[in-house]
Amino acid sequence: MPGFLNRHRASRLMEDAGLTALVLAQPESILYAAGAPAGVAANWRRAGAAFVLVPADASAPLAAVVGDLQARSFAAQSGIGDVRTHRLWVESGPYPDPSVASRTPRPAQYDLSASLAELRALLSERGLLDRRVGLELGFIPAADYPEFVRPPVAWQDCTRIVEQLRSIKAPAEVEYLRRAAGYARAGLSGLLKAIAPGMDATEMTSIWREGAIAEASRLGHAPPQSSWAYISVAGDGFAPGGPARQGDLIKIDVGCVVSGYSSDGGRTAVLGTPSAEAQRIHDALHRAFDAGFALLRPGAKLADVYRATATAMWNQGYDTYNRGHFGHGVGSSIWSEEWPFISAQSDAILEPGMVLAYETPWYVDGLGGFIIEDQVLITDSGVEVMAPLPRELVGLG
């Protein structure tokens, strides 16, 4: 499949940062840019399993360094013509083939120095060795970094640039996230109908997951690639808890993964009648949610969204409520949270094509967990809730 990298946007960001190229090293960034996975060696999440070179000149072709095991498939899947290889531990190829006979053992995993040698040769051929080149230093382990600085490359951290690029979703990415959110919503709706006294969080998770899979099947889709759930019952908003009893709060925070893209959404329910304090807190969180949600539109500063949400809680008498963020980007990562974050310190501005999970959670010891969370798409004119559900505290039974 083609990658989702917007070369012209990448060029503008590189120009603003004074960079001549980006070197992508994080597996998720490589898949995003190339449309092909970095390969099995990337599972160790160490530097050098694969690289993709993105020149600032949008007309210049991409290039890659990958393990020899998947070099052909990577080239075919990505469409990148210049794919260099380094040896992995896996022995593969035709048998017998005397032309490649060697008694030199392969590395136990892969050889970072060999991978970097291919990268440096590529940079040299492109005239980039003594230029300012972006590298995802947010991913490179400290133990590996000394290998990068031996021959002269003027590495600059491009972690934020890659985050900015990945934050604007292509139509296909939006569709993955829309499907994932729809499956999760269907599972959540089914769970709310099925919860009964005596159930614990493990049982609830199974019911939710079965409902999500059933929704994918109903639509004629393959089941979600994977799924996750943080369901808590009663007094600890993060501990699973149970069995459920009358008056217990049930926090349901769930997501499905489609083609590597994870949705994120959540609601709060109560078995029977909520306590007066539980109802007051949920109502306050709902009003705070509405205050911040009203600002979700292109051009809005995420710091302003945070301030509106937090201030709404403070103005209701909850001065100690100081959550660090009220949501985050969603996409293809090793977790459901990625840049940008709706925080007091954020310098990010909402743009069309961003997909975020906007939320007002609170975990109150002894009372339980609360969450109101919607996955939203920033459109040209405003915001779209991708899998809407009522936001009130859901009474069960």
Widest sheet, order of strands: 4-3-2-1-5-6
Distance between the termini: 48 Å
Instruction: Write the H/E string, N to C.
Output: HEHEEHEHEHEHHHEEEEHHEEEEEEEE
Helix content: 25-40%
Mind describing the biggest β-sheet? 6 strands, mixed
- How many independent structural domains? 2
- For the record, what is the CATH homologous superfamily label of the largest domain? Creatinase/methionine aminopeptidase superfamily
CATH topology of the largest domain: Creatine Amidinohydrolase
Structural class: alpha+beta
Low-confidence stretches: none
Could you tell me the mean pLDDT? 95
CATH architecture of the largest domain: Alpha-Beta Complex
Total DSSP E strands? 18
* Beta-strand fraction estimate: 15-25%
Broad CATH class of the largest domain: Alpha Beta
Instruction: State the shape.
Output: globular
Instruction: Report Rg.
Output: 24 Å
Number of helices: 10
Task: Provide a descriptive summary of the structure in words.
- This protein has ten helices and 18 strands.
- The longest helix has 24 residues, at 171-194.
- The protein folds into two domains: 7-167, Creatine Amidinohydrolase, Chain A, domain 1; 171-396, Creatine Amidinohydrolase, CATH 3.90.230.
- The two termini are 48 Å apart.
- The strands form four sheets. Strands 4-3-2-1-5-6 form a six-stranded mixed beta sheet, sandwiched between helices. Strands 7, 8, 9, 10 and 18 form a five-stranded mixed beta sheet that branches. A five-stranded antiparallel beta sheet has the order 12-11-13-16-17.
- It has helices at 7-17, 27-34, 71-78, 112-125, 145-148, 159-167, 171-194, 201-218, 276-293, 302-314, and strands spanning 21-24, 51-55, 63-67, 82-86, 132-135, 154-157, 226-233, 249-258, 261-262, 265-271, 325-329, 338-343, 355-359, 362-364, 368-370, 373-378, 383-385, 394-396.
- The chain is of the alpha+beta class and 397 residues long.
